TrEMBL record:
Gene Ontology cellular component list: plasma membrane
Record GO terms (molecular function): phosphate transmembrane transporter activity
Family statement drawn from the similarity comment of this UniProt entry: Belongs to the binding-protein-dependent transport system permease family. CysTW subfamily.
Protein's UniProt keywords contain Transcription regulation: no
Keyword Membrane set for record: yes
Lineage start: Bacteria, Bacillati, Bacillota, Bacilli, Bacillales
Membrane topology according to the record: Multi-pass membrane protein
Source organism of this protein record: Cohnella terricola
Protein name: Phosphate transport system permease protein PstA
């Protein structure tokens, strides 16, 4: 068989596989959006769930999901960046470092239900944080930290060696080289890892069942005291997220319009994840142009 023929066959197979993946993704998103958007309204997005009559919404669950995302990223990003920088630039190349990398890779493949049970035993019971947003954020940090560490390390190692050596030759310190030269170049890769970690926070349910809980107190959105048990800003209150709410309302079936609520909540969850990804990518390009002076 001639080389050109093999090339055409291989190209056709790759294009067909790519098209199949796109069609499956488009079909899945289209099914969720078409089925759920008809049930989405302002009242649906802002009201609390109702189990006695129709008309319930997902307001508290949507707020809980966004609040949990913020808490998790506040904990995950600094630790993940610091650990990735250390592993890439400061850690010596020896058996201990290789063992740490292996542990990180193994930890990234641990099922989320195991992370949830760990959170239940250690965070909820041993440390006494109880079923709360804080417990859920710590559990998701354990879940997402390996991804952030590996992505940061790979992003920094992908920086051209010449740029790093040129910075050091100009007299800049190692830390200044990392923060002013290497991190801006690696920012798109690091931001991709951050987006993946954040997406897992939005869609995670198994780990949160055992840490954040499956119910929320009736929130008072006029009370912004973070120490109040009914304040939406209290990180130590139980919180049912949107993904947990979708699972719960389908499994219990107490609401007469459970199917409609689940369909609408699924559509909102998908749209939120898509908007977050688009916004994060735009921010990444903006930061890259700003740090590297590329217009």
């Amino acid at each position: 068989m001639k080389a050109k023929t093999v090339d055409k066959i291989a190209t056709s197979v790759i294009i067909a596989i790519a098209a199949l993946i796109v069609l499956v993704l488009a079909g899945l998103l289209g099914y969720i959006l078409v089925r759920g958007l008809g049930h989405v309204s302002f009242h649906f997005l802002t009201s609390a769930p109702e189990t006695i009559r129709k008309g319930g919404g997902i307001g508290p669950q949507l707020f809980n999901s966004i609040f949990l995302l913020v808490l998790t990223m506040i904990i995950t990003i600094p630790i993940g960046l610091g650990a990735g920088i250390y592993m890439s630039e400061y850690a010596p190349s020896n058996k201990l470092t290789n063992a740490i990398r292996l542990v990180v890779e193994v930890l990234s493949s641990v099922p989320s239900i195991i992370v949830g049970l760990f959170g239940l035993l250690v965070l909820v019971n041993l440390f006494g944080f109880g079923f709360s947003l804080f417990s859920g954020a710590l559990a998701l940090t354990v879940f997402n930290l390996p991804l952030m560490v590996r992505i940061t390390e790979q992003g920094l190692k992908g920086v051209p060696r010449e740029q790093k050596e040129a910075s050091l030759a100009l007299g800049l310190s190692k830390w200044k080289t990392i923060t002013s030269v290497m991190l801006p170049i690696a920012m798109p890769v690091i931001l991709t890892g951050t987006i993946l970690a954040a997406g897992r926070v939005f869609g995670e349910a198994a780990a949160l069942l055992f840490t954040a809980g499956m119910s929320s107190p009736r929130l008072d959105f006029s009370d912004w005291n973070p120490l109040s048990p009914f304040s939406p800003l209290n990180p130590f209150r139980p919180a049912e997220t949107l993904a947990v709410h979708i699972w719960k309302i389908n499994s219990e079936g107490l609401a007469p319009d459970a199917g409609e609520i689940a369909a609408g909540a699924s559509a909102v969850l998908v749209i939120t994840v898509l908007l977050f990804n688009f916004a994060a990518r735009w921010l990444g390009r903006y930061m890259y142009r700003k740090f590297t002076a590329i217009k």
